[in-house]
Specification:
With 123 residues, this protein is mostly helical. It has a single domain, classed as de novo design (two linked rop proteins). The chain is built from four helices and no strands. The longest helix is centred in the C-terminal third of the chain and has 35 residues.
Length: 123
Amino acid sequence: MAHYDTLPIYKATYDFLLRVMHAVSHFPREYKYTLGERIQEECIELVIMIYKVNVTKSKVAYLKRMDEQIQLIYLLLRISHDMKLMPTEKYAGIVEMADGVAVQAKGWLRANEKMREPDNATA
C-alpha cells in the first residue's frame, strides 16, 4: 500500500484544496463564514477521505462517498459562482481541478469494484 501523500489523487486534491481556500479568502465577509467555510470544510473532508480509503480494506464504500463529496463541492462552487462571489476564470480553473480529482476517484473506484467482482461471482 502506497503512503497516502505520495498518491497522485492526494497531490491533486491537496492542490485543489489550496486553490479553493485562496478563492474563498476573497469572498465578502457575509459569505466567507457561511458558504465559503462550508466549501472549505467539504474540501478538507475530501483530502481526509483519501487517507481513509488508502488505509482501509473495504475501499468501495469510501470511494462512493468521495464521489458524493465531489458532487457536493461542485454544487457549492456553482452557487458561489452564480452569486458572483467567484469570477468565472477562477471558477473555471477550480472546476477543472475538481474534474481531475473526480476522474482519478472514479478510476480508483472502478479498479476496486473489479477486484471485488470475483467475490461476488462466487457468492
